[in-house]
Structures are given as C-alpha cells and as structure tokens.
Amino acid sequence: MEEFPEQIKKLIVSGHVRISEHGYDELSDDDIFISDILNGINDSISVEYYPKYPKGKCILVLQKDVNGQPIHVL
Hints:
It is built from three helices and three strands; from the N terminus they run H-H-H-E-E-E. A hairpin with a 5-residue loop joins strand 2 (58-64) and strand 3 (70-73). It has helices spanning 3-13, 21-29, 34-39, and strands at residues 45-50, 58-64, 70-73.
C-alpha cells in the first residue's frame, strides 16, 4: 500500500487529477475548497486502502483544511 499513496501524491502535484461532478457537489455541500485538498495532499495520513473498490483502487486519507479542520478524502 505504501506505493499507492505516493503515486496519488505525484499525480496531484503534476496536475493529473479529475474530480467527478458528484465529488464537486459533496465538497460544495461541506464548504470544502478543492484547493485545500490539493494543497494538503503532502501532509495527508493514509487511513484505509481499498484495492478492490468497484470504480478502481482508491485510498481514504485524513487531511486538514487551511483552518486546521479535519477533512476525509477518498
């Protein structure tokens, strides 16, 4: 699993990231800015890895927004 979070971080830093319409809606509903997620990826903590997720392997991470509030991101 250690390799996967690093791959995700590299993709985000290089700008190779897509956010679904559903993802944007969820962020908006919770008043979370995409910039907080993208800028906080290097300080994220891996919580759980889902290698067999139906839409492709993914990982749940814990991050903080600019105010230090926790954000869980899948």
